[in-house]
Amino acid sequence: xxxxxxxxxxxxxxxxxxxxxxxxxxxxxxxxxxxxxxxxxxxxxxxxxxxxxxxxxxxxxxxxxxxxxxxxxxxxxxxxxxxxxxxxxxxxxxxxxxxxxxxxxxxxxxxxxxxxxxxxxxxxxxxxxxxxxxxxxxxxxxxxxxxxxxxxxxxxxxxxxxxxxxxxxxxxxxxxxxxxxxxxxxxxxxxxxxxxxxxxxxxxxxxxxxxxxxxxxxxxxxxxxxxxxxxxxxxxxxxxxxxxxxxxxxxxxxxxxxxxxxxxxxxxxxxxxxxxxxxxxxxxxxxxxxxxxxxxxxxxxxxxxxxxxxxxxxxxxxxxxxxxxxxxxxxxxxxxxxxxxxxxxxxxxxxxxxxxxxxxxxxxxxxxxxxxxxxxxxxxx
Length: 381
Prior knowledge:
The chain is α/β, with parallel strands linked by helices. Helix content is 69%, strand content 10%.
Protein backbone atom coordinates (compact mmCIF):
# COMPACT_ATOMS: atom_id res chain seq x y z
CA UNK A 1 0.00 0.00 0.00
CA UNK A 2 1.44 3.35 -1.05
CA UNK A 3 0.33 6.74 0.11
CA UNK A 4 1.35 9.74 -1.99
CA UNK A 5 1.38 13.18 -0.42
CA UNK A 6 1.07 15.92 -2.99
CA UNK A 7 3.00 19.12 -2.25
CA UNK A 8 0.98 22.18 -1.33
CA UNK A 9 1.98 25.71 -0.31
CA UNK A 10 4.34 25.65 2.66
CA UNK A 11 4.84 21.81 2.63
CA UNK A 12 7.34 19.39 1.14
CA UNK A 13 6.70 16.10 -0.69
CA UNK A 14 7.34 12.55 0.49
CA UNK A 15 6.26 8.97 -0.31
CA UNK A 16 5.32 6.43 2.31
CA UNK A 17 5.05 2.68 1.91
CA UNK A 18 3.86 0.40 4.74
CA UNK A 19 3.78 -3.40 4.58
CA UNK A 20 2.42 -5.59 7.38
CA UNK A 21 3.77 -9.11 7.90
CA UNK A 22 3.08 -11.33 10.93
CA UNK A 23 2.56 -8.48 13.37
CA UNK A 24 5.57 -6.61 12.06
CA UNK A 25 5.53 -3.59 9.81
CA UNK A 26 8.05 -2.49 7.21
CA UNK A 27 7.96 1.23 6.53
CA UNK A 28 9.80 2.79 3.58
CA UNK A 29 10.08 6.54 3.18
CA UNK A 30 11.16 8.44 0.11
CA UNK A 31 11.61 12.12 -0.65
CA UNK A 32 12.06 14.85 1.94
CA UNK A 33 11.53 14.56 5.68
CA UNK A 34 11.67 18.02 7.19
CA UNK A 35 10.09 20.22 9.82
CA UNK A 36 7.36 21.29 7.38
CA UNK A 37 5.88 17.80 7.01
CA UNK A 38 7.10 16.07 10.18
CA UNK A 39 3.74 16.05 11.98
CA UNK A 40 1.84 14.85 8.88
CA UNK A 41 4.35 12.08 8.30
CA UNK A 42 4.07 10.90 11.90
CA UNK A 43 0.26 10.87 11.64
CA UNK A 44 0.39 8.90 8.37
CA UNK A 45 2.76 6.28 9.82
CA UNK A 46 0.72 5.91 13.01
CA UNK A 47 -2.51 5.53 11.02
CA UNK A 48 -1.17 2.68 8.86
CA UNK A 49 0.59 0.65 11.56
CA UNK A 50 -1.22 -2.39 13.02
CA UNK A 51 -2.99 -2.02 16.34
CA UNK A 52 -0.30 -3.83 18.35
CA UNK A 53 2.81 -4.20 16.23
CA UNK A 54 5.62 -6.46 17.34
CA UNK A 55 8.33 -4.59 15.46
CA UNK A 56 8.58 -1.71 13.01
CA UNK A 57 11.41 -1.68 10.47
CA UNK A 58 12.30 1.60 8.75
CA UNK A 59 13.92 2.01 5.36
CA UNK A 60 15.40 5.50 4.98
CA UNK A 61 17.82 4.72 2.15
CA UNK A 62 15.83 6.77 -0.37
CA UNK A 63 15.30 9.88 1.73
CA UNK A 64 16.67 12.91 -0.12
CA UNK A 65 16.53 15.41 2.75
CA UNK A 66 16.47 14.82 6.50
CA UNK A 67 16.64 17.49 9.21
CA UNK A 68 15.63 17.93 12.85
CA UNK A 69 11.99 17.39 11.94
CA UNK A 70 12.83 13.87 10.79
CA UNK A 71 14.73 13.24 14.01
CA UNK A 72 11.70 14.37 16.00
CA UNK A 73 9.50 11.94 13.99
CA UNK A 74 11.80 9.01 14.80
CA UNK A 75 12.02 9.86 18.50
CA UNK A 76 8.27 10.33 18.85
CA UNK A 77 7.55 7.12 16.89
CA UNK A 78 9.99 5.19 19.07
CA UNK A 79 8.27 6.53 22.20
CA UNK A 80 4.83 5.49 20.92
CA UNK A 81 6.02 1.99 20.04
CA UNK A 82 7.83 1.61 23.37
CA UNK A 83 4.56 2.39 25.16
CA UNK A 84 2.99 -0.53 23.23
CA UNK A 85 5.89 -2.90 23.88
CA UNK A 86 7.20 -2.75 20.30
CA UNK A 87 10.62 -1.97 18.90
CA UNK A 88 11.71 0.41 16.16
CA UNK A 89 14.64 -0.63 13.99
CA UNK A 90 16.27 1.22 11.09
CA UNK A 91 17.14 -1.38 8.47
CA UNK A 92 18.63 0.92 5.84
CA UNK A 93 19.74 4.52 5.91
CA UNK A 94 22.17 7.00 4.37
CA UNK A 95 25.51 8.20 5.81
CA UNK A 96 24.09 11.68 6.31
CA UNK A 97 21.13 10.38 8.31
CA UNK A 98 23.37 8.08 10.36
CA UNK A 99 25.66 10.99 11.19
CA UNK A 100 22.68 13.14 12.19
CA UNK A 101 21.16 10.46 14.41
CA UNK A 102 24.49 9.77 16.12
CA UNK A 103 24.33 13.31 17.53
CA UNK A 104 21.17 12.44 19.50
CA UNK A 105 21.11 10.11 22.49
CA UNK A 106 17.77 8.47 21.73
CA UNK A 107 17.98 6.02 24.61
CA UNK A 108 18.18 8.78 27.20
CA UNK A 109 15.18 10.51 25.63
CA UNK A 110 13.12 7.35 26.15
CA UNK A 111 13.88 7.26 29.86
CA UNK A 112 11.06 8.63 32.03
CA UNK A 113 11.70 11.93 33.72
CA UNK A 114 12.76 11.59 37.35
CA UNK A 115 10.14 12.44 39.89
CA UNK A 116 10.61 15.87 41.46
CA UNK A 117 12.02 15.75 44.98
CA UNK A 118 9.41 16.04 47.69
CA UNK A 119 8.91 19.49 49.14
CA UNK A 120 10.44 19.62 52.63
CA UNK A 121 8.09 20.41 55.46
CA UNK A 122 8.08 23.57 57.50
CA UNK A 123 10.00 21.97 60.35
CA UNK A 124 12.65 20.69 57.95
CA UNK A 125 13.03 24.10 56.36
CA UNK A 126 13.35 25.79 59.75
CA UNK A 127 15.95 23.26 60.84
CA UNK A 128 17.96 23.65 57.63
CA UNK A 129 17.90 27.42 57.93
CA UNK A 130 18.93 27.22 61.58
CA UNK A 131 21.86 24.95 60.72
CA UNK A 132 22.86 27.36 57.96
CA UNK A 133 22.89 30.28 60.38
CA UNK A 134 24.83 28.27 62.96
CA UNK A 135 27.42 27.39 60.34
CA UNK A 136 27.70 31.04 59.35
CA UNK A 137 28.08 32.10 62.99
CA UNK A 138 30.81 29.51 63.52
CA UNK A 139 32.69 30.71 60.43
CA UNK A 140 32.32 34.33 61.56
CA UNK A 141 33.66 33.55 65.03
CA UNK A 142 36.62 31.60 63.62
CA UNK A 143 37.44 34.34 61.14
CA UNK A 144 37.17 37.01 63.84
CA UNK A 145 39.70 35.17 65.98
CA UNK A 146 41.96 34.70 62.98
CA UNK A 147 41.75 38.43 62.19
CA UNK A 148 42.50 39.46 65.79
CA UNK A 149 45.56 37.22 65.87
CA UNK A 150 46.72 38.61 62.54
CA UNK A 151 46.42 42.21 63.73
CA UNK A 152 48.20 41.30 66.96
CA UNK A 153 51.11 39.83 65.00
CA UNK A 154 51.19 42.92 62.79
CA UNK A 155 51.48 45.19 65.85
CA UNK A 156 54.12 43.02 67.49
CA UNK A 157 56.23 42.70 64.33
CA UNK A 158 55.58 45.74 62.12
CA UNK A 159 58.45 44.84 59.79
CA UNK A 160 56.62 41.71 58.70
CA UNK A 161 53.62 43.78 57.71
CA UNK A 162 53.03 44.03 53.96
CA UNK A 163 53.17 47.82 53.87
CA UNK A 164 53.28 48.09 50.08
CA UNK A 165 49.89 46.41 49.76
CA UNK A 166 48.62 48.43 52.73
CA UNK A 167 49.53 51.73 51.04
CA UNK A 168 47.90 50.49 47.83
CA UNK A 169 44.62 49.73 49.59
CA UNK A 170 44.81 53.00 51.52
CA UNK A 171 44.90 54.85 48.21
CA UNK A 172 41.97 52.86 46.84
CA UNK A 173 39.89 53.14 50.02
CA UNK A 174 40.79 56.73 50.85
CA UNK A 175 41.95 59.06 48.10
CA UNK A 176 39.82 57.53 45.36
CA UNK A 177 36.73 57.78 47.58
CA UNK A 178 37.04 61.52 48.30
CA UNK A 179 34.84 62.74 45.40
CA UNK A 180 31.88 60.46 46.14
CA UNK A 181 32.15 61.10 49.89
CA UNK A 182 32.14 64.85 49.34
CA UNK A 183 29.16 64.68 46.98
CA UNK A 184 27.04 62.47 49.24
CA UNK A 185 27.89 64.45 52.36
CA UNK A 186 27.04 67.85 50.93
CA UNK A 187 23.81 66.57 49.40
CA UNK A 188 22.66 64.96 52.64
CA UNK A 189 23.44 68.10 54.64
CA UNK A 190 21.71 70.33 52.09
CA UNK A 191 18.58 68.19 52.30
CA UNK A 192 18.62 68.14 56.11
CA UNK A 193 19.34 71.86 56.42
CA UNK A 194 16.62 72.87 53.95
CA UNK A 195 14.04 70.67 55.67
CA UNK A 196 15.02 72.02 59.09
CA UNK A 197 15.00 75.63 57.85
CA UNK A 198 11.39 75.30 56.70
CA UNK A 199 10.27 74.33 60.19
CA UNK A 200 12.58 76.57 62.24
CA UNK A 201 11.71 79.67 60.23
CA UNK A 202 8.12 79.46 61.49
CA UNK A 203 9.38 80.08 65.05
CA UNK A 204 12.15 82.54 64.20
CA UNK A 205 14.78 79.98 65.16
CA UNK A 206 16.77 80.03 61.93
CA UNK A 207 20.02 80.27 63.82
CA UNK A 208 19.58 76.73 65.21
CA UNK A 209 20.22 75.29 61.76
CA UNK A 210 23.91 75.55 62.64
CA UNK A 211 23.34 73.37 65.73
CA UNK A 212 21.42 70.79 63.75
CA UNK A 213 23.98 70.61 60.98
CA UNK A 214 26.97 70.44 63.29
CA UNK A 215 25.62 67.75 65.60
CA UNK A 216 24.01 65.60 62.91
CA UNK A 217 27.00 65.58 60.57
CA UNK A 218 29.60 64.86 63.24
CA UNK A 219 27.62 62.35 65.30
CA UNK A 220 25.57 60.46 62.71
CA UNK A 221 25.53 61.51 59.07
CA UNK A 222 29.28 61.82 58.64
CA UNK A 223 30.41 58.42 59.92
CA UNK A 224 27.26 56.60 58.80
CA UNK A 225 27.15 57.81 55.18
CA UNK A 226 30.90 57.42 54.81
CA UNK A 227 30.70 53.85 56.11
CA UNK A 228 27.86 52.98 53.72
CA UNK A 229 29.89 54.33 50.80
CA UNK A 230 32.91 52.32 51.98
CA UNK A 231 30.78 49.18 52.22
CA UNK A 232 29.65 49.62 48.63
CA UNK A 233 33.15 50.40 47.35
CA UNK A 234 35.77 48.77 49.53
CA UNK A 235 33.75 45.92 51.06
CA UNK A 236 32.54 44.76 47.66
CA UNK A 237 36.04 45.12 46.18
CA UNK A 238 37.59 43.04 48.97
CA UNK A 239 34.97 40.31 48.58
CA UNK A 240 35.30 40.19 44.78
CA UNK A 241 39.11 40.13 44.89
CA UNK A 242 39.40 37.34 47.45
CA UNK A 243 36.45 35.48 45.90
CA UNK A 244 38.14 35.46 42.50
CA UNK A 245 41.33 34.18 44.08
CA UNK A 246 39.34 31.48 45.87
CA UNK A 247 37.62 30.38 42.65
CA UNK A 248 40.91 30.30 40.74
CA UNK A 249 42.42 28.23 43.60
CA UNK A 250 45.06 30.85 44.41
CA UNK A 251 44.07 30.77 48.09
CA UNK A 252 44.53 26.98 48.14
CA UNK A 253 47.91 27.40 46.47
CA UNK A 254 48.97 29.84 49.20
CA UNK A 255 47.89 27.37 51.87
CA UNK A 256 49.83 24.59 50.11
CA UNK A 257 52.96 26.75 50.15
CA UNK A 258 52.51 27.40 53.87
CA UNK A 259 51.63 31.08 53.53
CA UNK A 260 49.29 32.71 56.04
CA UNK A 261 46.21 33.96 54.18
CA UNK A 262 45.43 36.46 56.94
CA UNK A 263 48.85 38.12 56.74
CA UNK A 264 48.88 38.25 52.94
CA UNK A 265 45.23 38.95 52.09
CA UNK A 266 43.27 40.21 55.10
CA UNK A 267 45.51 42.30 57.36
CA UNK A 268 46.57 44.87 54.71
CA UNK A 269 42.94 45.46 53.70
CA UNK A 270 41.63 45.78 57.25
CA UNK A 271 44.45 48.03 58.39
CA UNK A 272 44.11 50.26 55.33
CA UNK A 273 40.39 50.78 55.86
CA UNK A 274 40.80 51.32 59.61
CA UNK A 275 43.31 54.08 58.92
CA UNK A 276 41.42 55.74 56.08
CA UNK A 277 37.77 55.62 57.18
CA UNK A 278 38.28 58.08 60.11
CA UNK A 279 40.05 60.44 57.69
CA UNK A 280 37.15 60.16 55.26
CA UNK A 281 34.77 60.83 58.14
CA UNK A 282 36.60 64.04 59.07
CA UNK A 283 36.50 65.07 55.42
CA UNK A 284 32.76 64.36 55.29
CA UNK A 285 32.25 66.43 58.46
CA UNK A 286 34.08 69.37 56.93
CA UNK A 287 32.19 69.23 53.64
CA UNK A 288 28.89 68.84 55.48
CA UNK A 289 29.54 71.89 57.68
CA UNK A 290 30.36 73.92 54.57
CA UNK A 291 27.14 72.70 52.98
CA UNK A 292 25.19 73.86 56.00
CA UNK A 293 26.98 77.21 55.76
CA UNK A 294 25.74 77.55 52.18
CA UNK A 295 22.14 77.07 53.30
CA UNK A 296 22.54 79.43 56.26
CA UNK A 297 24.09 82.24 54.22
CA UNK A 298 22.11 82.09 50.98
CA UNK A 299 18.74 80.87 52.28
CA UNK A 300 18.46 82.10 55.88
CA UNK A 301 20.57 85.25 55.49
CA UNK A 302 22.76 84.33 58.44
CA UNK A 303 26.26 85.87 58.56
CA UNK A 304 29.21 83.49 58.39
CA UNK A 305 30.45 84.61 61.83
CA UNK A 306 27.08 83.90 63.42
CA UNK A 307 26.91 80.45 61.87
CA UNK A 308 30.31 79.34 63.18
CA UNK A 309 29.83 81.02 66.56
CA UNK A 310 26.53 79.24 67.10
CA UNK A 311 28.08 75.94 66.12
CA UNK A 312 31.01 76.53 68.46
CA UNK A 313 28.73 77.28 71.40
CA UNK A 314 26.77 74.06 71.18
CA UNK A 315 29.41 71.62 69.94
CA UNK A 316 32.26 70.01 71.85
CA UNK A 317 35.19 67.91 70.77
CA UNK A 318 33.43 64.79 71.99
CA UNK A 319 30.93 65.10 69.14
CA UNK A 320 33.73 64.68 66.61
CA UNK A 321 35.43 61.97 68.65
CA UNK A 322 32.17 60.02 68.80
CA UNK A 323 32.00 59.96 65.01
CA UNK A 324 35.62 58.85 64.77
CA UNK A 325 35.05 56.01 67.25
CA UNK A 326 32.10 54.84 65.19
CA UNK A 327 34.11 55.04 61.96
CA UNK A 328 36.86 52.81 63.38
CA UNK A 329 34.31 50.17 64.42
CA UNK A 330 32.59 50.47 61.03
CA UNK A 331 35.92 49.97 59.26
CA UNK A 332 36.56 46.70 61.10
CA UNK A 333 33.07 45.47 60.23
CA UNK A 334 33.22 46.44 56.55
CA UNK A 335 36.68 45.01 55.89
CA UNK A 336 36.09 41.90 57.99
CA UNK A 337 32.75 41.06 56.40
CA UNK A 338 34.10 41.71 52.90
CA UNK A 339 37.10 39.40 53.40
CA UNK A 340 34.97 36.72 55.06
CA UNK A 341 32.47 36.70 52.20
CA UNK A 342 35.36 36.44 49.75
CA UNK A 343 36.64 33.28 51.43
CA UNK A 344 33.12 31.80 51.25
CA UNK A 345 33.12 31.77 47.43
CA UNK A 346 32.66 28.29 46.01
CA UNK A 347 33.10 28.05 42.23
CA UNK A 348 32.21 30.01 39.13
CA UNK A 349 31.48 33.62 38.31
CA UNK A 350 27.99 33.31 39.78
CA UNK A 351 29.47 32.58 43.18
CA UNK A 352 31.69 35.67 43.02
CA UNK A 353 28.70 37.86 42.16
CA UNK A 354 26.65 36.31 44.93
CA UNK A 355 29.27 36.80 47.65
CA UNK A 356 29.94 40.37 46.46
CA UNK A 357 26.26 41.21 46.84
CA UNK A 358 26.22 39.50 50.21
CA UNK A 359 29.26 41.51 51.33
CA UNK A 360 27.50 44.79 50.55
CA UNK A 361 24.23 43.81 52.23
CA UNK A 362 25.91 42.27 55.27
CA UNK A 363 28.25 45.23 55.61
CA UNK A 364 25.48 47.81 55.55
CA UNK A 365 23.38 45.73 57.95
CA UNK A 366 26.31 45.44 60.36
CA UNK A 367 26.89 49.18 60.16
CA UNK A 368 23.28 49.98 61.04
CA UNK A 369 23.25 47.52 63.94
CA UNK A 370 26.55 48.85 65.30
CA UNK A 371 25.33 52.44 64.99
CA UNK A 372 22.20 51.57 66.96
CA UNK A 373 24.31 49.92 69.67
CA UNK A 374 26.61 52.95 69.85
CA UNK A 375 23.63 55.27 70.09
CA UNK A 376 22.15 53.40 73.06
CA UNK A 377 25.50 53.05 74.84
CA UNK A 378 26.47 56.69 74.51
CA UNK A 379 22.99 57.82 75.46
CA UNK A 380 23.20 55.84 78.69
CA UNK A 381 26.76 57.03 79.25
